[in-house]
Amino acid sequence: MLRRDFLRNLVITTGGLVVAPSLLSACGTSATSSGELVIGTPTNPTKLPANGEAIADGLAEEKGTLEILNWADYTNPEVIADFEKLFGVTIKTSIYDTEESAIAKLRNGTFKPDLIIGLTDTALARLSAAKLLQPINKSYIPHFTNLIGGLQSPYYDLDSQYTVAHVIYANGIAYRTDRIDSSVFTSGNGYDAMWDSAYKGKLAVLDSYRDTISLAMFQAGKNDVNTSDADVLSAAQENLIRLRNATNPKVDILSYQELPAGNRDIAFTWSGDILTALGYLPEGTPAESLGFWYPEQTITANDFLCIPKDSKAPVLAHKFIDYLLDTDVALKNQTYVGYQPALSTITVDTLLSSGAIPETLKDSLVTPEKYDSGQRLVSLSPDADALWLDAWAAFTAG
Amino acid sequence: MTRRRFRVLPTIIWGYVIWSLVPVIIAVAYSFNDGRSRTVWQGFSLRWWIGDPNASVLHDASMRNAIFNSLILAFTTVVIVIPIGISLAVGAHRLRGRSAKAVQGLTSVPLITPEIVVGAALLLTFTRLFTGIPLGFPAQLLGNVTFSISAVVVIVRARLVSIGSGFEEAARDLGATRFQALRYVLMPMLWPSVMASLVVVFATVIDDFVITSFLSSGVDSETVPLRIYSSVKGGATPALNALATLLVLTSFTVLICGLFGLSLWRKRHGDNGGLRAALADVTQADA
Amino acid sequence: MKQSPKIWPALAAPGATWLLALFGIPFYAVACVAFGTIDPIFRDAVPQWNPLAWDFGQAREVLASVLSGPLQGVFLRTIVYVLAAMITSFAIGFPVAYFLARHAGKRKLLLLTLVIVPFWVNYLMRMLAWVNLLSPSGLFSRFMGVFGIHYNWLDGSPITVVLGLVYGYVPFLILPMYATLERLDWRLVEAARDLGATSRQAFRLVTIPMAQAGMAAAAILIALPMFGDYYTNDLLSRSPRTEMLGNQIDFYVNNSQQPQRGAVLVLMLSALLLVALSWYLRSTSRYAKERTK
What global pTM score does this model have? Predict the structure, then answer.
């Protein structure tokens, strides 16, 4: 029953018919084509321009190596080892730290992977314009139907021509319950906690300019996370500089390790991170010491899998995508990675009843309602992007 | 009064030696830690070296790959840079006038250029100008050779200065051509510099981080320093300490072999400087 | 008989050509990227190979940012850190080199070896060692905890970064300093003592002036790499509060799609290098002249 509601809501959202008015009207801009950037939004979904032909059907998979470009600790090593055994191949993984560096390195030839895991909509317009991706041949991906209905044809890539959804998550604040009481977030503006100098030196924000600048916007009550308004951005920049002066934050994506290790008390991060963190708790620290505040106004998102145009092992890449969409494999992956797979077969209830998620962290799970009501980050036009990057540079330059 | 300085200085130098070496010794010690921690001692074990079937240096394919890449890069760089460097040093030593100054300047600049400048410049060059050269091992090799040429030139030039031109002139008086004087008189006398260069360049390249990192192409061209850098930030096990120790051991082995080779050569050629002279040969590069 | 010895230029040619091609030309490429244009969609740098068509707009913007904008903080901070690290390195390294050169006596070879050992230990391993020690559960933090000092050394502390730079680069100071001091003519110092100077006066008025050129060279030798350092800061602190110039260059050239800004910063660093290079060449040629006396 929950599944049907979930499906229905997502189909409606991406179809652009009935939308949660007060929120999506703020975030939706029409599908813009700045130069050659084709950007889809929830209110104006887009079909990406063609970039060559997909591989033919029924080819045999390649032998040898499959090179994957991935975030650190973002796929269960056992899942990888199982695939290697299943197909008799070797998998090598190159790591990226931020989306921007991944795009830069893909474009200048530093990275030449066969499969990319974990990029999001904010990267897609540029990847498509740079003609870096090849169309997906779904005949190799029978498990495609396991995906949440709404994500089978997402607004940023109608008909999933180039991408296959991977996990869903939201932005929020992870914290140590043994150092910070949850009432800090519920009395007044929960975001204010990130500006509290009581946490100086024990606080972190994400090394991701779209997410962290949005944090500053949400704290100030602004919801348009795709804005190109210079005033809003400069206010957000000032706000971030205030944060920096008050709390001396770390700016990285390592909170999933540092928080359980006790080196941080509070971190603005992606919701999956707090579940990954469970695996990094030292002996003697109970799972209940981790907490997550899921804000009412926040970003919800999904990332995806995609195959570069000059992949040397496209059939294997397709097979790996199919493999990750298998329910059992996805569950096994989730126990290590933490993030929720974007499969309709794995609902919030499944995860809770599997015992993998402690009660104290069930707020971090993204339910269909939460997914709908969150803001979506979409690609920006080059001019808007420049404003965002300048604000970020001012923040990180100290 | 002089006695007071005597007491202060030894304290400083021994204090320095301890401060300089003890952290490294501790890091090496923790590579034998039984648990996953790099900071809390949990007993002695070889698991991170050979025991653990997944994460030990012996069994982790990516770590073995890093070691392999480091060794290959260092060896290949040495093989290429030594002939070029010797040739450049010998030729430049005898040039006169403006071309001498130009070459001198050209070889001195890399010595004091921050690696990040060279790395960034080479990255931009290989991605926008010399695009035929792929990033990864080819680019890393060219970058490291470029950066090491000056070190070889410094070592060889120092030796040339101390040899002087007397021997060659004597050979030429006896009828040898310039080329013969070079080949049969000067070159053999340059052997210590060859060995010293080999040691210095090998150690420099195997430890190189910035240039190798800027010109890398993902996991295939990852060397040990790159691996250490990317792993320190994330939950690394003591296997990382073991990997770093292995790198240090490799450099030391090459150094010791080089020093012995130099001492032997010196003894055979009647020079009794011994180990100290050999050390001077090798550290000449940094003077 | 005076023949023009073609053999020498012939020998020097391969090396010189290599350096021109892979050192000289890349500098030109950096300039072409810095003074080129920006692709409108990706805002990626499009190099301009013709110097006559160079566009200095982006360079002016970065310069403005350095002089009065967001990059001003980074620039000033880098200068302060490098100066602090250099002075501390001298404070530690000079006595060590002096002792080695003058008073080591029987233990000289042993001490020299021990002082040289850090050279052969990978820089990153030496930093890794300190990261382990300084982490909250590390030995150093626990040791300090015994005295009641509970401080997170890795939380973006400038002291940690500066001391990290010192730890990393002081061996590169000691060896040239030792080489300089070893070759000084100590008889002049003794002569000064014979003439009635105290040891302190002799040190100040004879030793230091003789060693000056070598000291300047050693100072440059460690200051320049420090200006481009980014990994020390990256390992010991991951906070904007200690962001250095090298981090900005690394970010723009490697991890962003605006390498043009990185190229401009590289040029600025190179300009600094040119100034220092002329100083270095002057002091080493003076030093070399004194050596051959």
Answer: 0.87
